[in-house]
Predict the 3D structure of the following.
Amino acid sequence: MMATPRMGYGGGKHQQQNRPSDPLLGNDIRMQVAVRVRPVEKGDANLSVDDSIVRCGAKEFAFDNVFTGDQQTIYEAFGRPMLQDAILGYNTCLFAYGQTGSGKTFTLQGLPGAGLPATAEPRPELEGVLPRFLRELSAYRKSKLIKYPSSRIHITMSILEIYNEEVRDLLGSKGDKVQRPTLAEDPETKQVVVCGASEIQIEGSEHALELLKVGVAARETAPTQMNDLSSRSHMILILTLKQRGPDDSPGWLASNIKFVDLAGSECLGRTGAEGSRRREGAHINKSLLALGKALSSFSTGSQMSDMRGTLRESKLTRLLSENFGGNSRTRMLAMVSPLTSNEAQTASTLSYANRAKNIKLHATQNKLKEAEANKVKQLQAIVESTRGELEAIKVELETTRDQVRDLEAERNEMAVDLEVLQQEKEKVEKARIDSELAREEAYSAMNIQKMAAQQLREQLTQDRVERDRLQSRVTEVEARNVELEAENADITEQLAREREAADRRLAQKRVRSVSKSRRSGSTEHARSLREQNHLNQQLQRAELTQDYLKEDILSTKQQAETTEMLRRTAVAQSHSLQAQLAGVSKELREEKRKSEQLKTMLTREAKRPGSPMERRAAATHALSRNTSQSRIGTPMTRTDSEYVGGGLG
């Protein structure tokens, strides 16, 4: 069961024992540490509070303050004393430490939009320490200037975040253009300064709250299993307050004010972080570990000079080094959750906070002498002038970037046009190559056609020669046929005369034979019979010779008919070849006029069975075969002497 403690600096013995020195009483004080216990919504609590004592398990811790109440109470106990320190010229710092989801951002800023401009339903009671501080600081400036019009008060604001060990300017970054300041060490003061961060002069409370809203909106956040809006970076808000009284007041007072909203320590297994979120959690834990080591070292009395190496382990410890062991009045707010499930991390946070109480601080008023003030004033004028020049350079740079973007867009368009032209060029080149190939193929086909036409011409010439030869042969055969018919007629007439003469002689001999037979008897009759037989044989030979002549005449007629047929065939083939030659000539003329169409026609013609070229080859082959057969000799006929010699003698 949690007891409600008394708030503020008074009320409990532990509070009186551990109370820090009053800012007005001295410079050597210790760090003021308070704990805020997050209210329990559901679940078992493992934490008990008794005034300024917190019990976690078997351990008991005593702090300057333990808060379980509202936002106003925390501001009155921690925020307003910070403002008083800053007005007196002391550097101050407030940082919130604790596990993720324990209420650090809520304590410093309040609910999103609470007390900030353009909020639909303002909830002033939920404002955090920061909005309340900015309002009162602006009110102090306004009242001071009204009371002392010759006074000078300058307030500037910078908001940084450390994300994955990278410093970012939340007020100078726009969209994707992240401005990354750097950390450097002042060679004179040995203090760490931020170079390149935006420092915006505050004109009033509304202006300050608007800047706070811009910075908070630019911060890296993401949902995890333990927090719907988990901070993924450490946010540091830096205010510089420089003031001078009326004209007769000596020197200036300056103070540096930091509000540090640390990212929560994470148990990666419980947050369920994966990928980039897991890497963010690892960087957060690493920087918090370095911060814990620095707190432990300073709590044991280590000096700043001995802590150089430890402070350089993280950007966070470097930036806050002056607030731990140097010139600063630093306060720590430790945020804890009372739930039993968070017992281990709550105990760790309480241990860190308990050790931080022992850190000794050496804060001094930052008084600037007149010369230093003038120098600062000059430096401020230089800074303002440089800032103006920088703004002009930024405008010029933005203009240049716009021009570069325009040129880049134009270059991209030209690249696209060039690519299109390149494609067109490739198409034209391909068309040219295809045209040349087609032209070469057409020329090749024309040459083939010319060779075929030449062969046809030669074949036609040969056919004409062969036709003339056959015509001469036919003429010779016809003349020979006439001669043979004349010879046959002469032979027939001669045979007829010889037969008549033989018949007459035979009759005479028969008459004589009869007469003689009567006279001479049988001997004469035998001789007559022999003569008759001899005459019959001669007659048979003459008839046989006549048959041979008839066969020769018939054979000669057949040869004449065959020759005539061959002549007609040759003439027909000659006419066909002439027609083909005329067709080839026409095709050649057509090919010269339309070479592209000829390519397609010749390709299709060459692939199709039974093409004209194939038919021409077949015709040529048939003509050659017929010519070869015509050259074979006819059967040999008997000469006139053979007829006469064979038939007559």
